[in-house]
Write a structure and sequence with these properties.
This protein is mainly alpha-helical. It has eleven helices and no strands. α9 packs antiparallel against α10. It starts with a helix and ends in an 8-residue tail after the last helix.
């Protein structure tokens, strides 16, 4: 029976189930056995599609990406500047990652299983090159903003596994009491571990301002 059902399984179907379980169990609790139980197959059947857990994570990241770019709010508007495109792309990335518990961990280091991302990459790099960046500068600029967003969400989800859900045992006031001998470090907790929306926007704009200063045409290269 498991063999017959396995033939009907598609990688995307497995990844969809895995993403649903991810929100329930987190990345550490996501196992091939648990996914197989949800799909009513034996765990070894999944190895027809995924040789290991990383291969599954690659497919999950691909499904996450496809959902991000089909979100109407994430679609670029005609005539946007490279700055506006970079803001929109990274806002969309953060929003997409926050839809899943440990979403940033799943996405980090994953290799997409399709070529869907190439179109967006071409558009973003093209906007920078058209603005006068060299290809090297365009790649450095876009990947710096991307890694900022990925790192930001990784830390954000370390405190809030899902929006509004504070990690058990995490208490800013208790942290401040423990660090009472270091008043600046103690007071910084309220800034570091709260206000994620505002801080993300400010940080992203700092990144873009830095790119303008260093790479934009007419900037002084150090």
């Amino acid at each position: 029976m498991a063999t017959k059902k396995t033939s009907k399984l598609e990688p995307g179907q497995v990844a969809e189930t895995a993403l649903r379980l991810l929100n329930e169990r987190g990345l550490e609790g996501l196992t091939l056995r648990a996914i197989a139980q949800e799909l009513h197959v034996q765990a070894p059947a999944l190895y027809w599609h995924f040789k290991n857990k990383q291969a599954l994570l690659d497919e999950m990241a691909t499904v996450m990406y496809r959902r991000m770019v089909t979100d109407p709010d994430a679609r670029p508007a005609a005539g946007q500047s490279w700055q506006e495109l970079m803001l929109a792309a990274n806002r969309g990335l953060r929003a997409g990652l926050l839809r899943y518990r440990d979403g940033a961990k799943v996405y980090s280091g994953a290799r997409f299983t399709g070529t869907d991302h190439a179109q967006d990459m071409e558009r973003q790099l093209g906007a920078l090159v058209d603005a006068g960046f060299s290809l090297r500068e365009a790649v450095r600029a876009s990947t710096t903003a991307y890694m900022y967003t990925l790192g930001f969400v990784t830390e954000e989800q370390g405190t809030e596994p899902q929006p509004g859900e504070v990690r058990e045992g995490f208490d800013i006031e208790e942290r401040a009491r423990r660090l009472a001998d270091y008043p600046l470090a103690a007071a910084a907790g309220a800034e570091i571990f709260a206000g994620y929306d505002e801080r993300f926007e400010e940080g992203l704009r700092l990144i873009i301002a830095g790119i303008e200063t260093v790479y934009a045409p007419g900037a002084t290269r150090g």
